[in-house]
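Q: Convert this sequence to structure tokens.
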Amino acid sequence: MPIVVDLAVIMAQRRVRSKDLAAFVGITQSNLSLLKNGRVRGVRFETLSKICQRLNCQPGDILRFEPDAEDAPTVNDE
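A:
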């Protein structure tokens, strides 16, 4: 998937435990774990906002786009 979730990295840098972040955001530790591992199809803006508030970061610090080879643009020689 071309969207990479760096939430675990930011949490480690800020020394924030999953238990504490989940409680602050108001989600279960299981759902936070799924998000950290990139196993969710979407995230609510409200949830993302609370995560950024607690970690003092921007959404782009947590999520980034990394295209796969098949997602990369191709040049049309026509």
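The longest helix spans residues 45-55.
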